[in-house]
Amino acid sequence: MTGQTDHTQVPAGRNTISVDAMGGDAGPTVVVAGIAMSAKMNPDIRFILHGPIEQLTPLVAKKRVLDGRVEVRDARDVVTMDDKPSQVMRNGKGTSMWSTIESVKHGEAAGAVSCGNTGALMAVSMIRLRKLPGVNRPAIAILWPSSNPQGFNVMLDVGADVRADAQDLLQYALMGTSYTRNSMDIARPRVGLLNVGTEEHKGHAELKEAYALIAEHADRGSFEFVGFVEGSDIPGSTADVIVTDGFTGNVAIKTGEGTASLIRSTLRDAFQYSILSRLAALLALPSLTRLSKKIDPRRVNGGVFLGLNGTVVKSHGGADATGVSAAVKLAFRLAEQGFAEKLAARVASSVELTQDTPARDFARATTQKD
Amino acid sequence: MTGQTDHTQVPAGRNTISVDAMGGDAGPTVVVAGIAMSAKMNPDIRFILHGPIEQLTPLVAKKRVLDGRVEVRDARDVVTMDDKPSQVMRNGKGTSMWSTIESVKHGEAAGAVSCGNTGALMAVSMIRLRKLPGVNRPAIAILWPSSNPQGFNVMLDVGADVRADAQDLLQYALMGTSYTRNSMDIARPRVGLLNVGTEEHKGHAELKEAYALIAEHADRGSFEFVGFVEGSDIPGSTADVIVTDGFTGNVAIKTGEGTASLIRSTLRDAFQYSILSRLAALLALPSLTRLSKKIDPRRVNGGVFLGLNGTVVKSHGGADATGVSAAVKLAFRLAEQGFAEKLAARVASSVELTQDTPARDFARATTQKD
Hints:
Chains A, B: GO terms for molecular function: phosphate:acyl-[acyl carrier protein] acyltransferase activity. Chains A, B: Catalyzes the reversible formation of acyl-phosphate (acyl-PO(4)) from acyl-[acyl-carrier-protein] (acyl-ACP). This enzyme utilizes acyl-ACP as fatty acyl donor, but not acyl-CoA. 2 copies of one chain form a homodimer. Chain A is built from 12 helices and 11 strands. Chain A is α/β, with parallel strands linked by helices. In chain A, strand 5 and strand 6 (152-156) form a beta hairpin. The radius of gyration of chain A is 21 Å and the shape is globular.
């Protein structure tokens, strides 16, 4: 497996994030720049950084802010974007990704961040961290810019599994509620189930089943169920949590990202059209910057894996330093709040709920706060 | 059924579009304004307009450009957005929507346009016009702004049916190819199959089956199959035709629309932030107008129903006059080109294709141009 090195400064506990230096499109330089940004903003944070030691040590040495705050953990292999999850599960023990998850498993770090191959990261996380008792399918949750007061909605699953049955969708509603409470200040999140229309008779049969199941558990799960929502509600203000299967969720976020990116490039072209429009662009710069900030995908970089024994944040493969830093911040924040433990308690209570235990047990199960 | 009135000026043939005046969010005034815009731009176009005669006649009389070019066909009932398709199929004979489709069925008009309830419009179209021989599930195709040279991609199905098996997806590829050839100047459209990743091992089993089937028919169907594409390719330049089931397609376009609308409102807010930014907005107006034009959903308003004996265009329920006019223009253009007949020929040839007729028959079947 991975060789341990540089034992002089082993950071441990809640303030340590395990980071996969490899697997992102831009290589380890950007990842190290990202953790340096995080280190600057947060004096308490420490890192275990995984990858080839001869590449990482000089990169870390160049950033004074990282001095004494990073342990480099040598891992020789790298999971590429083309590797199949099943291959990585069998032969991935020597990879930086595997090593990154191991640090969480062994309690050395409170959370993990990787820019690598999503499918492989989920596969390694599942076999090393294991699913929470009662969770059939873990999910990936993301924050999506929205017109809600909090500025974002939570959506899940966006690609952990292409399938989800009614029971899975209920779990997503409960896990999404818990994540929303821990990442935003919303006591009773509004949960919507993604469909092609808001009328109850629309959509697949399994969605109608999920509708009934989620509605039934809303009160005990401490969320408000707003029923079916549509694609336009993902960036809208109707719900705080959008629940869907990983196939639909993945297509939806990529369509949204693609549309935003088309608009950005069209806007750029429009402002470069003439000398006058270039002048206008100069004057409009503060306004355009405000727009960019609001819809900048880097600010919300990081899909959180929900339903595992441990916090794993998947950063975008094409993330720059700002993006990596945002993913690290998210992992740190969740670690600080003991989110993994709270989610486990919430899921445990929901398992009791869905097993139809007597009312007395329901009351006990749902008094746990998350 | 519908009573015929105003027989003095019955327009007929290829240049006549049958228009449902009712069922849009903004009522018949906007629809009449829309057809007046079309009439101004196109001196050859004529209309049969369906709805309550006492409402429509004064509206039409107010527009001089419509003088002698509109036959009002009295229909007393209106399909609302809440009506279930099954109800409309049973009890909808007196509605303006039903009457609109009847005009196409009886050959009085070359195409139909309605802003009404999509599910009901598809249901009425299916029972009155009937599916083309060999088509199991008709589809709704839309144009979506893209970074391709032609400025748009075709996507289908966006909501005719929530399900689609491999055979249906092949039909969508063939119908989408035909529609792309007739709405844009692309001889050999590139077809992509929507999935959660571009690797062949990803996605549902039925998608892998569809992949093989579409790949097999690419040459004979005169399209290029680019394989799996992702949500980001819908506004991208990888493919000209995006094939997917109606559930995924519907969620995707609504997510894209919602994202574009969030960006628009954020941009507006950004430019109203201060006096300086308002001044900048004034100077930037030409640039912003260029952006709006490029991504204006009204310019591509109109989902085309493919796979029926006749051309039906579904306009957005919230369309304004410009939107209605765009939908009418699309119906007229397709009618002018004899698209319905070309599509029927194309589907007939594909039925032969998929029935694995001998090579000699393939050659004959695919020599038909569309």
